[in-house]
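Q: Give me a backbone?
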Amino acid sequence: MMNVRQEKQYEYHIPVFCKEVKELFRMVANGVIVDATFGGGGHSRELLDSYPQMRIIGIDRDPDAISNFRKNFSDKERIELYNVRFSELCNIIKTPVDGILADLGVSSHQLKSMRGFSYNEDAYLDLRMDKEGETAVSLIARLNTGQLANILKEYGDLSHGFYIANIIKKYKPRYASELRSLLEKYVRGRRIFARVFQALRIAVNREFTELSSLLECLDNDKTVKKSGVAVFITYHSKEDKIVKEFFKKSSWQEIYKKGIKPEREEVLNNRAARSARLRAAQKI
């Protein structure tokens, strides 16, 4: 269980795999680490507290993360923070770093941000992490039923994606509560709700494309030093597969034979950890 201090500092988001992340970056304890999903700074805070010589370059596409850092983070002198996407990382790295951490998916803050990330809120179906570009409402309006069905199948693992897409296109929900009501009426199972919202979120934010761009940047010798460490935490089977295939074909050697899952105690204390999987590799 978390103490009062931890509950306060993790109001934005509770990081997963903290123990494992700290141990993996021990070998580069005096180096510079990129936290590619800075969020509430949970992992970065743990690393800086554990390793006094470490410095962090943080990036996050959500401007809320930048605002939260400016208001609530005390150890600012050891952190450089940028409001950019994964695909812009290579433009920021001036000299090779010692490691990179990416905790993919959506943060607890975003789920409570009234941007439509959660089916439990009565918010406009926005779903943008960076508050720029196309919203979920605009995406639904632009795509035809077949295109929307493909998104639901590929990103939500929904075998009956065409049926759900047809319902969504017919009724054109504009709010998270409206989409949930449609799913409750025409589709059974609460797990379906989460998968539909997940699929729309991934499509709106081009998450898999951005992830591929980040991995491509890592394969550049100018980004990470030899013997550097990369840690990826994924929450989607395809996300995990993208990372796994990259490590197999690149100049990175996996530290574990396969991705690891969180310990039972962590899952009991943090439900968000249930679907998490960690992969780590070292540059050779």
